[in-house]
Design brief:
By secondary structure, the chain is an all-alpha fold. The protein contains 9 helices and no strands. The longest helix is centred in the N-terminal third of the chain and has 20 residues. The protein is globular and about 50 Å long. The two termini are 27 Å apart.
């Protein structure tokens, strides 16, 4: 169950991206694009920290969108409804099947703090149907730890870890997107990650 912390919960209206940041009048310059992206990220940052009463449900909706995008990337037919059914309608502690397990990996991302340990990442890889060398996984965790003190902008670090994963294992692109969301949350100091980037890339 997703529990709300009453000490930090907020009932205020969610922030919105300024209208000027989403205007689509022609192709923006690189500078304009960066400025608009910064405005959008600022609104998202406020929302991610707000602990709104509906935040848990919102994160889970993001998780199912990313899981559905993962299915499209893998060439599978399961949509959001099928993924929810595979997870929620299975008998207690029963195997949710390959598609349901992928949904479970995204659900777990949205429910826990953005920490990367070999044990945690190993379980995620199992859910994604991947097998990873233990030493390589420990090295990946070290790289993520180094990104925590990086001087680059958080989105660039998220992109870097996704690219690193795909360079190491071209069959692990979904895992790369999963880690990108974790690194983004870690760098921005969010209490839990938001499953975002997979759905943006393959939505």
């Amino acid at each position: 169950m997703i529990r709300l912390d009453p000490a930090t919960a907020s009932s205020s209206a969610p922030p919105s991206v300024p209208a000027w940041a989403i205007t689509s009048a022609g192709a923006p310059s690189d500078g304009d694009a960066a400025f608009r992206a910064g405005a959008a990220l600022g609104a998202l940052d406020t929302l991610a920290r707000a602990q709104a009463a509906w935040a848990g449900a919102w994160r889970q909706r993001l998780a199912v969108r990313c899981a559905a995008s993962s299915m499209r990337l893998a060439g599978r037919a399961e949509d959001a409804a099928a993924l929810r059914d595979a997870w929620h309608l299975r008998p207690l502690r029963a195997d949710p099947g390959p598609a349901g397990a992928v949904f479970g990996a995204w659900r777990q991302l949205a429910r826990q703090p953005p920490a990367a340990t070999p044990g945690r990442l190993g379980k995620i890889l199992d859910q994604l149907g991947l097998h990873w060398d233990g030493a390589a996984l420990a090295d990946l965790c070290t790289q993520i730890e180094k990104l925590g003190v990086s001087q680059r902008s958080a989105p660039f670090d998220a992109a870097a870890i996704a690219a690193e994963v795909v360079a190491m294992r071209p069959d692990a692109e979904v895992f790369g997107w999963w880690l990108a969301d974790l690194v983004l949350a870690q760098r921005l100091g969010w209490p839990q990650p938001l499953p975002l980037l997979m759905a943006q890339g393959f939505g």
